[in-house]
């Protein structure tokens, strides 16, 4: 009988371990998700051109200004605002970055100051901005601008325009000649 009791004790002990180990198994589920956005893209539409600028004057080109004749102290010249098209996913977090362009470079490495978001009178204006209408631009600045990308259609894709206007300030003794510079717009998903 003693042997039978030992067998029952050992069997109960073994069953207890099996039940305990089985009771310790746990599981849970997790979901996997992804948000797919359109490929980000930037396309230049038009270069920023001030046309002729007289020495000793400031000349402002408004964002969205269409190529045409502008008056500068009685002298007419062709001027045009610059623009880009940017494509990205609607509602996505995007950084629009501009290089710092403070001067245009001309003959003999002379410089011509270029000023953004200020008109020829020095008043603050939105001359660097994004939107589908130039009358309601959201201001951007040189450097980094983090935005929530709008839900607007450009060329049958989700996109927006970035309009570029600016002011140049020619000194009274500014060297005559052609002055150029490069404004680069980079768009990055955050």
TrEMBL record:
Name the UniProt key words of this record, in alphabetical order.
Signal
Give the range the annotation lists for the signal sequence: 1-23
InterPro entries from the UniProt entry: DUF4402
Q: Which Pfam families match?
A: DUF4402
The lineage's top-level taxon is: Bacteria
State the protein's name.
Answer: DUF4402 domain-containing protein
Native organism is Algoriphagus sanaruensis
């Amino acid at each position: 009988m003693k042997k039978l009791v030992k067998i029952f004790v050992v069997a109960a002990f073994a069953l207890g371990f099996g039940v305990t180990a089985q009771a310790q198994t746990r599981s849970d589920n997790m979901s996997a998700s992804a948000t797919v956005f359109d490929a980000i893209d930037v396309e230049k539409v038009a270069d920023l051109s001030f046309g002729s600028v007289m020495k000793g004057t400031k000349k402002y080109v408004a964002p969205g200004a269409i190529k045409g004749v502008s008056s500068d102290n009685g002298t007419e010249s062709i001027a045009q605002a610059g623009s880009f098209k940017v494509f990205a996913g609607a509602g996505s977090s995007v950084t629009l970055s501009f290089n710092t362009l403070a001067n245009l470079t001309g003959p003999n490495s002379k410089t011509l100051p270029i000023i953004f978001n200020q008109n020829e009178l020095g008043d603050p204006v939105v001359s660097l901005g994004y939107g589908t209408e130039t009358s309601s631009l959201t201001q951007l600045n040189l450097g980094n601008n983090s935005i929530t990308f709008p839900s607007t259609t450009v060329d049958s894709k989700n996109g927006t325009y970035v309009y570029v206007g600016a002011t140049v300030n020619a000194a009274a003794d500014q060297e005559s000649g052609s002055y150029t510079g490069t404004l680069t717009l980079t768009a990055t998903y955050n």
